[in-house]
Design goal:
- Helices cover about 40% and strands about 25% of the residues.
- The protein has about 325 residues and is α+β, with helices and mostly antiparallel strands.
- The chain folds into two domains: about 170 residues, Winged helix-like DNA-binding domain superfamily/Winged helix DNA-binding domain (Arc Repressor Mutant, subunit A), CATH 1.10.10.10; about 120 residues, no CATH class.
- The strands form five sheets. Strands 4-5-6-8-9 form a five-stranded antiparallel β-sheet. Strands 7-11-10 form a three-stranded antiparallel β-sheet.
- Strand 4 and strand 5 form a beta hairpin.
- Helix 2 crosses helix 4.
- The N terminus is likely disordered.
Length: about 325
């Protein structure tokens, strides 16, 4: 809020929620948008309006870009930070200081870095402000059509803080969704050095919520031995293709000269190792039933048709 033309940051007392976790909401629409990357989707350009759009027919979802269609992991992470503050502080008027942003990201706070990241935040807020979504809302008993829903109504920067106002239509839709908790350490991933790590890690935690959620809904007597083991040892089984298709790694068919190992597999493993380095997960290759691959099987795995059909066994440490 403004007091005497100065941005005033109130002493907000957030509800008691897990301090080490990112508090987000979960829906098919939000999940698709959170892993959207302009390099992996086909944009349609309107020469008259100058706007770009992308449609997901299977999900009745259209995303329109008014300002820029260049969206990447930095945009996604900023959007998640905004969601987190909205949920943690229960407010539609987000106040994000540059110091808070840099602390969440694990960055050194100094004048040079502040100047750099103020510019970056402004660029990505401009992108988010110009995005609108049209889709069928299935989060309620009676599905309804939502058209032209924007995330951000307006924003400005002053005195070391961003004031971001969310739209009423977004808040109405968003607040009715189910919680999705992620470790705060994910915000510290450098999206320039590990370009697909945030996409992959977000997808991993979405799958964990889905797989474990289905088991938890069952009574103890109806859970299989396999399901009980999953909960007890806190792991999931996920297909490599499931993570790959939601990443920002290049499409296999776009790669020439058979360099897929250098351009897809090695970055994929590198960024999984980065998530492991943060002491969030451990991972290993396995088959569909969770049996870890032998040394002989691992030697043969790096042919594309074999690799893309394999699975990962991912243990959660947080």
């Amino acid at each position: 809020m403004l007091k005497n033309n100065i941005l005033y940051i109130p002493d907000i007392k957030p509800p008691k929620l897990p301090e080490k976790q990112i508090i987000l909401k979960n829906s098919n629409v939000i999940n698709i948008f959170s892993k959207l990357n302009h390099k992996r989707v086909e944009m349609k350009n309107n020469l008259i309006t100058g706007k770009s759009s992308i449609s997901f027919e299977n999900n009745n979802l259209t995303i329109e870009f008014n300002n820029s269609n260049t969206i990447d992991a930095t945009t996604t992470m900023l959007f998640d930070i905004i969601q987190h503050i909205h949920n943690e502080r229960n407010t539609d008027n987000i106040i994000l200081t540059i110091n808070e942003y840099m602390t969440l990201k694990g960055l050194k706070i100094n004048p040079r870095n502040k100047k750099k990241y103020i510019k970056i935040i402004k660029e990505h807020l401009h992108i988010l402000e110009g995005i609108s979504l049209s889709f069928i809302d299935n989060s309620k008993k009676k599905p309804s059509r939502i058209g032209g829903m924007n995330f951000i109504d307006n924003w400005f920067y002053k005195n070391g803080a961003f004031k971001i106002t969310l739209t009423k239509s977004f808040v109405t839709y968003y607040d009715a969704l189910m919680l999705l908790l992620l470790p705060k350490k994910l915000f510290k991933i450098d999206t320039n050095k590990n370009r697909c790590a945030y996409y992959i890690s977000r997808k991993i935690y979405e799958i964990k919520r889905m797989q474990h959620g289905k088991i938890i809904k069952k009574t103890e007597s109806k859970r299989t031995k396999y399901e009980k083991n999953k909960l007890k040892n806190n792991y999931i089984i996920v297909g490599i293709n499931t993570l790959y298709k939601d990443s920002n790694l290049p499409k296999y068919e776009d790669i020439k000269n058979r360099t897929y190992k250098q351009r897809i597999i090695e970055p994929f493993e590198r960024d999984l190792n980065k998530i492991e380095d943060e002491k969030l997960i451990t991972w290993e290759y396995c088959n569909q039933k969770g049996k870890v691959l032998s040394e002989d099987e691992l030697k043969k795995i790096y042919k594309w048709d074999i690799w893309i059909d394999k699975f990962l066994k991912i243990y959660f440490l947080e």
